[in-house]
Amino acid sequence: MDYETLCQDCRLVELCLPYGLPKTELEQFETIVKNKAPLLTDQYLYQQDDKCRSLFVVKTGSFRSFIYSEDGAEQTIGFYLPGELMGFDAFQHGRFTSSSIALETSKVCELPLSKLNDLCRLIPSLQSQMLRVLGKEIESDHNQILLLSHRSAKEKMATFLLRLSHRYNALGFSKTEFNLTMKRQDIANFLGLTNETVSRLLAELNHQGIITINRRNVKINNIDSLKVIVE
Amino acid sequence: MDYETLCQDCRLVELCLPYGLPKTELEQFETIVKNKAPLLTDQYLYQQDDKCRSLFVVKTGSFRSFIYSEDGAEQTIGFYLPGELMGFDAFQHGRFTSSSIALETSKVCELPLSKLNDLCRLIPSLQSQMLRVLGKEIESDHNQILLLSHRSAKEKMATFLLRLSHRYNALGFSKTEFNLTMKRQDIANFLGLTNETVSRLLAELNHQGIITINRRNVKINNIDSLKVIVE
DNA sequence: CGAATCATTGAACGACCTCAAGTTTTGTGG
DNA sequence: CCACAAAACTTGAGGTCGTTCAATGATTCG
């Protein structure tokens, strides 16, 4: 077996689906994980309406998921960092209702649904984990709804930065300095804004000294100021 | 056993969790369904941060779910009609992350989680149904994100009416005439608008003859016009 | 019947968008 | 490695849609 598929040695195991599984069951889980060739920037992991045969976990890199609305415009639904699962939206009809694209060279673990389902029946705690992760997805969508509904552009921008900071921190990276792997346009679309507005807001935060931004590199100088903006 | 708990005789069974279960398994499922006293208008089904011991299905009436954001303001997350499940957002940490309140006198079926989990292990097709319904919830949240991000107030309003029409139709009710069970304020909040804007938009649609609205009674006179607005 | 809640309507303001031009960075082929 | 084109990003000016504030009307309920 390929070294890379060993969950036991994966630094992300505590954030991932098999979190909390006893060693013997973790070993069972490892056997269903498939490797996939790394994806290059702008390469699709899956496309809307594709038949869904697997779920995917980000191992390295990052992804953007989005939906084509009826008029053909894209709507970004979310960004995925290491340890996060993608593909749940296909559970209803067996086909993906969104597309997922690599924002940089990225690796994923593939979890074939047929095997995953069988294993869930054998391992109740894996079953619970599945539901927990699904609940997390729903909660995160609710937070996004919250953000989009009644927040000013500035609040949206600050929240976006704080959430990224939080997620990178959970991954063991710096919570004050990181690189945005997505375009301004992607952020704007995700937040229900225009890229011009995003550009201006980042410039303003930069000017106020709250962040230092250079292209895609962000340094948060005053995290509390961001929190004040969000309230 | 109370008659009301018999899923076999429930007109909603095709929309509900046990959809597609063979008769013997449906009978098993029925044994875990608990009755609950009907809820009156403005009565909470559950509150944010409550420990989640059960999921709930709307049997009659309707509900509004919402989240208190940090500043204490409410954000309406969704409206629930008969056949729809509530409570999934609690899967992550075992506590509800939203509150649910009856919009009118309403009945629910209660599905105790402990028993439901056990049964899912025994009945694989129930397990699949759970995931399917969860996928539906996620897809519906994604549609809401889509709606909130880049749609004009008019598009939001038209979409809202069309979705209600569609859902009432699926329940066997008229798709052209129904009563709104929620306040203008609730609709506004749900759509990321103000109640004044909702009022004006409904008045405008009424003026154009596309709908006829009288307080909470809506008649859709020209469903195609609504679809044109949505595109 | 009176108070409270819900809904409607008007006028003015402002946040964000649109349009447009310019700058910086990235990518490609010679 | 350079030249050039394309893409990404920034910045400015003006316009618009939806909000805010305010007043009035309709309905519900004790």
Automatic annotation (TrEMBL), chains A, B:
InterPro entries named among the record's database cross-references: cNMP-bd_dom (IPR000595), cNMP-bd_dom_sf (IPR018490), Env_Response_Regulators (IPR050397), HTH_CRP (IPR012318), RmlC-like_jellyroll (IPR014710), WH-like_DNA-bd_sf (IPR036388), WH_DNA-bd_sf (IPR036390)
Domain of life per record: Bacteria
GO molecular-function terms, A-Z: DNA binding; DNA-binding transcription factor activity
GO cellular component, one term: cytosol
Keyword Transcription tagged: yes
A Pfam cross-reference name: cNMP_binding
Residues in Cyclic nucleotide-binding domain copies: 17-101
Gene3D superfamilies in the cross-refs: Jelly Rolls (2.60.120.10), Winged helix-like DNA-binding domain superfamily/Winged helix DNA-binding domain (1.10.10.10)
SUPFAM superfamilies hit by this protein: cAMP-binding domain-like, Winged helix' DNA-binding domain
Alphabetical keyword list: DNA-binding, Transcription, Transcription regulation
NCBIfam families in UniProt: PRK11161.1
Protein name in UniProt: Regulatory protein hlyX
The species this protein was found in: Methylotuvimicrobium alcaliphilum (strain DSM 19304 / NCIMB 14124 / VKM B-2133 / 20Z)
Gene giving rise to this polypeptide: hlyX
